Amino acid sequence: MNISKENIISLIKEYQQGSISEDGIQKLKEWLKEEKTNSDEFAKYLALFKESDAINKLDNIKTERAWLNISKSLSKPEKKVKTLSLQAWLPYAAAVVVLFAVSYFMIEQVRNDYDFGKDYNFAEVSSIGSKKAVLTLENGQQVNLEESTDSLIKETDGTLIQKNAANGLVYNDKSSTKGKVIYNQIAIPRGGEYSLVLADGTKVWLNSESSLRYPVQFVGNKRKVELTGEAYFEVTHNPDKPFVIESYDTEIKVLGTSFNVSSYDDEEYIATTLVEGSVEVSCLGNKELLKPEFQATVKRGDNKFKVERVNTDLYTSWKDGVFRFKNQSLEEICHQLSRWYNVEFFFTDHKYRELRFTGAAKKNKPLDFALGLVEKMADVQFAIKDDRIIVGKPE
What we know:
The protein is about 20% helix and about 30% strand. By secondary structure, it is of the alpha+beta class.
């Protein structure tokens, strides 16, 4: 059956809403017959839509009943339905449940007349993010990595910095001045992302509006870097030389593990999410040892941690080209995704900020596509005014 994953998800949403056509029902039946795993996918998406506050008017629809109804029409043997738990989530291809990707500009209770009826081209005021960064060398020289065609950069100590096949940076240990600490800094602009491999083999993915300061070669008894913004780390194991990340008042110490750190200038909390291994998070004299699938958040200037089990995909999938959300407000989503689409967003009323969504979005989708889907899922509309995207409704 030649039908895209996006169309299947859209049909499931229409099925739960009760707006699916006869043709749509037939397509779902054919899709469910193709593979045994499709029934589980069907149940997962139904549960996902049910949990989303953005469509809470459908809460009376039971996932199990919906599945049984369609399975009976297929005359298939009864099968237990797997409902969506907090540990399960959308596959990466689930772009149709995209929430929206916009920048952030909030003004309380402002009302103006906006033309929500026009057919706007939102691409005119936004752009899809891409791989770009600025590298600052020890001598202050700056290299625009998006524009630079050079595949090899040489630091003053002889270290070779190369671009790999994925257009990331790789540091090779060719230093001729052992013992001298030389620092580089990589800064990711709004609407960008970048990755690099440090001299010890540690892999780092940097999100938009982030920066990392690090030694070209690690000298001494620990490997220390300084982070602002968000990054995902896969740290090379070395029990004799722990890897330390410093960000404001918080320090994360590891031996070898995979985890995400979010510590933006404009956000109140610093969050460390552990995928595997173990990390010790400390802040102003207080310490917490994290286990896999747990997250520690701490308020800047405070030392009281909140530690809880989370679905780590929600906090790490950005590095694989997907944004994921679980019951997040429109305000939170705007704040997170603003950096990628590089566009300001204006709310005409506080109530629109409080709308909540659950879903996933491919990062390579244009803003027009995203906003169109949001309009279908929520009682809001979009307009453009002075290069800003306005959310609201005609009064």
